[in-house]
Design a protein that fits this description.
The chain has 263 residues and is of the alpha/beta class. The chain contains 9 helices and 12 strands. The longest helix is centred in the C-terminal third of the chain and has 16 residues, at 246-261. The termini are close together. The relative contact order is 0.16.
């Protein structure tokens, strides 16, 4: 399996490992095993430079990640063509609390705001940031329809959903371009979604491949075991790993290369 790979039928080519950026903008209300300090601009720029040097071209952000989008808009100035950017709609994080709005009106306004924050004319991938009611969002709110209209306008290249249920993942695979789902050695329930995405040639992004850092903190080579599992599946597009440690990033990239070499 190759490091650079087609993301389903979106026309996008992404690195097997993507950089999650919640830690660039938000330190409260997260579930990582250890506390961390949000890096300053020089540290964040160094992290991004290291990611590119390691061959990473995929970066994941969201309005719910504090000021991550605004920081990326400045940090990636002059580099836009080097990155595939994934952002989201639906969740806002304000005064330490998440709130959700999946209406078409908010969806459109959110994407337009993200375009300004990211300092770009188009966002490569926009996903619905689910609150857990995947089917309700898809069937009642018209969120994916609003994203499809934005894709038609050329403001978004690919649309999809960051799901939390098997049923929602299967429905999202049928109605969109990309599904983000959880898959790791202690959470394999959504393997059915991976298989369906492979059958439909839909893009997939694996979140929580290291269980939000908890697998990395475990004894043994759990990082390698997780990457081996994730990349053994033919439906896997890329894994999103959120880190602000350049050493951890390099170690994760090496683990992915070893996993790819075995498949």
């Amino acid at each position: 399996m190759s490091w650079l790979r087609a993301l389903g039928d979106t026309g996008l080519e992404v690195s097997a490992l993507g950089l999650g950026t919640v830690k660039l903008g938000r330190a409260e209300g997260v579930r990582y095993p250890t506390r961390f300090t949000i890096p300053d601009d020089a540290q964040a720029a160094s992290l991004l430079a290291t990611a590119r040097a390691l061959g990473i071209n995929l970066i994941d952000t969201a309005p719910a990640y504090g000021n991550s989008e605004e920081r990326l808009g400045k940090l990636l100035a002059g580099q836009r063509d080097e990155w595939v950017i994934c952002s989201k709609v639906g969740e806002e994080f304000e005064q330490g609390v998440s709130r959700f709005d999946f209406t078409p009106e908010h969806t459109i306004a959110s994407v337009e705001r993200s375009l300004l924050r990211l300092n770009t004319d188009v966002i490569d991938i926009v996903l619905v940031h689910s609150d857990g009611d995947d089917l309700g969002i898809i069937r009642r709110h018209g969120t994916l329809d609003a994203l499809a209209a934005l894709r038609q306008r050329g403001l978004v290249r690919a649309i999809g959903m960051s799901t939390k249920t098997v049923e929602g993942g299967l429905e999202a695979a049928a109605r969109s371009d990309v599904v983000m789902l959880t898959y790791n050695p202690v959470h394999r329930q959504e393997e059915t979604v991976l298989a369906e995405c492979a059958r439909r040639n839909k893009g997939t992004l694996i979140k929580k491949a290291l269980a939000s850092g908890h697998l990395a903190a475990a004894e043994g080579d759990s990082v390698q075991a997780s990457m081996n599992l994730v990349f053994a599946h033919p439906g896997t597009g890329a894994a999103i790993i959120g880190t602000i440690s350049e050493d951890h990033l390099q170690a994760n990239v090496q683990a992915v290369h070893r996993a790819l070499a075995e498949n």
